[in-house]
Amino acid sequence: MKPDAETVKRIDWDEIETTAEFQQLLAAKRRFIVRATLFFIVYYFALPVLVGWVPQWMSAPVLGPLNVAYLFALSQFLMAWCVAALYVRQASRWDRVARQIVERRSSAEGD
Amino acid sequence: MSMALLMFLTFIAITLWITYWAAGRSSGPSAFFAANRRITGWQNGLAVAGDYMSAASFLGIAGIIAFQGYDGFMYSVGWLVAYLTVLLIVAEPLRNAGKYTMADVLAYRLQPRPVRAMASLSTLTVSTFYMIAQMVGAGALVTLLLKDSGISFHAAVIGVGALMIVYVVFGGMLATTWVQIVKAVLLMAGTLLLSILVVAHFEGSFVRFFDAVTRVTYRDANGVEVTQNFLQPGLRFKPPYGALDLVSLGLALIFGTAGLPHILVRFYTVPDAKTARVSVVWAMILIGSFYIMTTFLGFGAATIVGRETIAAGGGINMSAPLLARALGGDIFFAFVSAIAFATILAVVAGLTISASASFAHDFWTNVVHHEVERRPGEEVLVARLTAFVVGAVAITIAILLGPTANVAFLVGLAFAVAASANLPVIVLSLFWKRFNTTGAVTGLGTGLVSSIALILVSPSVMGVDPAGSSTRHLIQAPPLFPLENPGIISIPLGFMGALLGSLFRREQEAERRFAELSVRANTGLGSEKATLH
């Protein structure tokens, strides 16, 4: 059952926050998000840094007329989609844990 | 009547019908500000894409690639990767903990009045700058696209402004959403068709296409014919500061997108955080595909149309429409022009509704009237009035600036403010227990002031124009700051401001309520529900 405004006011947020399962959920999320964010930031900024400071390397042709610079730029799109896909897979697991936390609280309070 | 005008009028008719349909469903704040939170994942994905891909993307990036090759494509990359910040860090906590605006998330554990006042100021700044850039662009563009119909710059600006006011005032978020969805579908269809025609022009061979891109011939400023490999970096970002400017631009895109108020409010229109996530994924598929296709639009214009023809046909922003004319004749030119027009309208409508929501909800109800709506319906009424005022102000400023004003830097400024002021406080508020009201106010303040100050002394505003040429710079003096993009300085300053401000003073209440925000943001417990209309 969805909590209405009055029930929401009575929720003991601090109690939920200190439960082991919530802390585990938080830790799992933080671990993934921090790693994924660091990864995509490093991968993304490699492009302007390399293009900006060593354009001669980036101009080297690799695949017919295509050079390193263009292929690396194109790979950024693939990278973004892959990170998004990995995140969505993880997040659906977290959804289940979050639902359990919410349901347990509801049954404990009997509403 | 020209074909282009006919298509413009068709689009206007469709959007006015949408507004009429939405008007009957837009009473009450949840309906007006958040479309009753009943937009589905793929719908919101399309709407986010429609809200985000402005004329600067469609016409601007195609043009930069057509004239400066690979360096233009660097913009395309940043515009998509930025959505990872939205997806991983902002979208879901925002949907879980907020109601109508970005400031809702900050106001949970901090003192609402100072925080909302600053957040509202920052939101209005971002939206207004962005809107003025769009309006001036719209006026110049419509005049150019409808050249045969004799519509003046003034008429075009007033027309665009009036339409955006009508969508928002009468149709609220629901009309805005569907205008954005229609625009996104048109934009994707037009871009795909244009890309297919470009590849078909090279007999369906990607190899031939890219071969041509490596040998683009044009006349340079001195009239000397040069052949240039357009896949080679360095045509736009040149030493000594080009590399730093590239990084600075990247920072503003990656951190700014997740702080753009008109993008953030879109996540309040869906039923829950999971749908918000799904909608970011849809948006990323659409936005990514679009920006990959800017390869064909930009390089296609460079190889098939050529720089001289584009310059003679209205300048760099006409690259994509002129490519359409070269490949598909007048009908396709009209279609692509109508898409550009739809693009502008959808973006300005999104900006208008986020600005009005922030003024009405954050400033009027929560700051001025201490979190109490005095009469039911007052908040929506104030929002409608704000939309009208914001629209009128944007029209007036755009007309005063005139069609030749160099306003492209205003988009950069909007991103810089979003990245330097908004994003640091959103992130710290969600992830740092010690963060407090002082930190939020100093963070928003330093981010806002430093971005504006740095832009004012950057080469976008300051510069000495050679005698006899048209005035391109607002201040005729050598620039004091060498980069066009202030992000590399202003984003760290914004974070520092927020950090130091928080350490300056302890706030028990903010730390105590961190648990509540954390549980809400991570479980969705107590989040705003979808409503029946």
Write a structural description.
The complex is a heterodimer of chains A (111) and B (533). Chain A is mainly alpha-helical. Chain A has one domain. Helices cover 83% and strands 5% of the residues of chain A. In chain A, strands 1-2 form a two-stranded antiparallel sheet. The longest helix of chain A has 42 residues. The model of chain A has no long low-confidence stretch (mean pLDDT 88). Chain B is mostly helical. Chain B has one domain: Sodium/glucose cotransporter (Up-down Bundle). Chain B has 20 helices and two strands. Chain B has a two-stranded antiparallel ribbon. The longest helix of chain B is centred in the middle third of the chain and has 50 residues. Chain B starts with a helix and ends in a 10-residue tail after the last helix. Classes of the chains: A mainly alpha (111), B mainly alpha (533). At the A-B interface, helix 2, helix 3, strand 2 and helix 5 of A face helix 5, helix 9, helix 10, helix 12 and helix 20 of B.
Order of helices and strands of chain B: HHHHHHHHHEEHHHHHHHHHHH
- Which sequence of SSEs, written as H and E, runs from N to C of chain A? HHHHEEH
The 3D shape of chain A can be described as rod-shaped
CATH evolutionary superfamily of chain B? Sodium/glucose cotransporter
Write down how many β-strands of chain A occur, each being a DSSP E stretch of 2 or more residues.
Answer: 2
**Structural class determined from secondary elements of chain A:** mainly alpha
Largest sheet geometry of chain A = 2 strands, antiparallel
- Number of separate strands of chain B: 2
Distance between the termini of chain A: 8 Å
Q: What count of helical segments of chain B does DSSP give?
A: 20
In the predicted model, the low-confidence regions of chain B spanning at least 5 consecutive residues are none
Count of discrete structural domains of chain B: 1
- Strand portion of chain A, in percent? under 5%
Contiguous low-pLDDT stretches of chain A (5 residues minimum) are none
The largest inter-chain interface, given as chain pair and residues per side, is: A-B, 52 and 57 residues
Strand content of chain B: under 5%
Count of separate DSSP helical elements of chain A: 5
Domain count of chain A:
1
Assign the structural class of chain B, choosing from mainly alpha, mainly beta, alpha/beta, alpha+beta, or little secondary structure: mainly alpha
Strand order of the largest sheet of chain A: 1-2
